[in-house]
Amino acid sequence: MAQLSGKVALVTGASKGIGAAIAEALAAAGAAVAVNYSSSREGAEAVVARIEEAGGRAVAVGGDVGKPGEAKRLVSEAALAFGGPVTVLVNNAGVYKMAPLAEIAEEEYRRHFDTNVWGLLAASQAVAAQIDGQAGSIINISSVVARGTFPGTAVYAGTKGAVNTISGVLAKELGPQGIRVNSLSPGLVATEGTRTAGIIGSEMEQGVVATTPLGRVGQPDDIAAVAVFLASAEARWVTGQIIEASGGA
């Protein structure tokens, strides 16, 4: 499988979980992949090692997309590392902390929107500026909570609602450049983050499984497979869409 041969991809927040699975899947499909990390260099280097062991090309690039100038630098480093423009961008980096209205702090609000929204905009802006007439794909990782209106998720869900809206806007703005933009919206996925948060193995997980037609929570590979499709020419007529990968939940 080499439908992404010759492509340079940048996956933000790719040291673990969904981002790591997407980076490995893109590499398996033939792309050269820049694996971004904010704090876990060790995790990103482990992802790179797995990709290289499987015969792929990858490099770890550190940087916090929520900070001014960092996203642009990451795109430049990825292009320099592989000798060509980034044509596949997966805006996966994100933070989440649940809190009811009375406990929402301005600091958390800014942290969420700086990373989940500004980071996406800045990275997309940098990719669009350097893509140089080639066909491209921007995949923005959202969440089903954007339309779930679950208590305690006002800030996080607000960022993901913004992600969905921005994806539609950018699809129209960047379409004339040959850049497709889609939102990939997972349901509950078993990752290091959801395990650490105590969600996996909890009554919440049981409730999700009970209302999911396919009868389980997602795995990172379930999301990665959809990302590869959206990055490939097989999705050449797909843009401005919100693709939910949730087992029907």
TrEMBL record:
Domain of life: Bacteria
Entry GO MF terms: glucose 1-dehydrogenase [NAD(P)+] activity
Keyword line: Oxidoreductase, Plasmid
Residues covered by the Ketoreductase domain: 7-187
UniProt keyword Iron present: no
E.C. number: 1.1.1.47
Pfam entry (one): adh_short_C2
TM regions (residue ranges): none
Record bears the keyword Metal-binding: no
Family of this protein: Belongs to the short-chain dehydrogenases/reductases (SDR) family.
Full protein name: Glucose 1-dehydrogenase
Native source organism of the sequence: Lichenicola cladoniae
